[in-house]
Amino acid sequence: MSATASQSTVLDEARTTTERVARTFALACRLLPPVVRDDVYLLYLVFRLLDDAVDEGEAGAERRVTAVEAWAQKRPAEVTREVEILGKLASRHPIPRDAFTDFCAGMRSDLAGERYRTEADVDRYCYRVAGTVGVVMASILGMRDPVRARPAAAALGMAMQRTNILRDIDEDLAAGRVYLAQETLDRLGGPQPGARRDLLRDQIARAEALYEQGRAGIPELMRGRRAVAAAAGMYREILRQIEREGYGSRPGRAVVSKPRKVVAAARQALRIQ
After folding, report:
1. Domains in the chain and their CATH numbers?
2. Which of 54, 55, 75 lies closest to 65 in space, CA to CA?
């Protein structure tokens, strides 16, 4: 198989994976300029492959995390699929390797089944597994002022991760996982259905503060501003859906309909120049 054919196969996998497991993100990707869209798909594939390997307890998960960690620290690294893709992306973009070091630390937290005592612990975890994604995405899109844009990109990723945690509470509980701060559970109750209104109100407010911080940095991006705003709008709508459904009065994942997603995306994208 030629190198070009191999690259095409990986890109096809990246597009298909995004469409299959990240439908909200895939909708936003359609607004990205073509010059960076494929590289965003490839970057997402790297994060997804590692995250799935860890979540599903694959035998080689720790080895693959170690390889990316070594690549990020410019040490000799096993050339896994993730490392190979990252090497090619780094030849085209100023990939912030420290963000990948932090992401791998988040993967190790998941491998260890770590629990979180304080909200600061949850924030650190959200930065590692999702704030880092925002930072790397911003690097690919380009930043006018990295000093302003990078913290905002991290905050937006953290907001989305906190949203995912709230959306997936019951699914995580069924798998024996809790991504909420024990001190907050002790104070506000939950996370069982019907007993988490106060908890969800508190957690939604924390996520909203991060969305506001993240949105303030979108104008600092050189490309893809409307795509990022659309993604933020669609993810934020999950919080509205949780509210509409009574703050977890019944078990199950909060699902936003596609028409509602499109409206939320358009509303936010049109506010960005």
Report:
1. 3-269 (1.10.600.10)
2. 54
Angle 247-250-253 from CA coordinates, rounded to 5° = 80
The CA-based angle 192-194-196, given to 5 degrees, is 65
**Dihedral-angle region of residue 118 (phi above 0 means left; psi in -120 to 50 means alpha; beta otherwise):** beta
Q: What is the pLDDT of residues 157-189, one digit of tens each?
A: 999 999 999 999 999 999 999 999 999 999 999
Q: pLDDT of 62-93, one tens digit each? A: 999 999 999 999 999 999 999 999 999 999 99
Give the rounded distance of the alpha carbon of 238 from its chain centre. Answer: 14
Quote the Cα angle for 236-242-247, to 5°.
140
CB-neighbour burial class of residue 99 (10 A; exposed 0-12, middle 13-18, buried 19+): buried
76 in helix, strand or coil?
coil
Residue 221 phi, psi (nearest 5): -75, 145
CA dihedral over 196, 109, 132, 260, signed as positive or negative: negative
